[in-house]
Amino acid sequence: MRRYRTGTAILAVPTEEVWAWQRSGNCHGYASSVFFPSESLRGPQRHRAETEAKRICSNCPVRVECANYALAHHEPHGIWGGTTPKERALIAWELNGSVR
Prior knowledge:
By secondary structure, the chain is mainly α. It has one domain (22-96). Helices cover 45% and strands 10% of the residues. It has helices at 16-19, 32-35, 43-57, 63-72, 85-96; strands at residues 2-6, 9-13.
């Protein structure tokens, strides 16, 4: 996957071979805001938003691919494969001994 720097952000440029699995995901057809809740949400509101996204992910046929993608690309935002950014950081730490 190619990456481009814009200001301080590095944006991934999607390619067919990297994203083909996503078309089979339960998330296909949902608004991205379901999986990328507003950063301003806190407490019970944040928990409800994350729980709804995780419910959709729970029986997804590409859940593992999705979570692996987020872990491999150090995805700092959103619910991927039923995991939050904090959960992915913990998984990365457990696998690699370091949090990103």
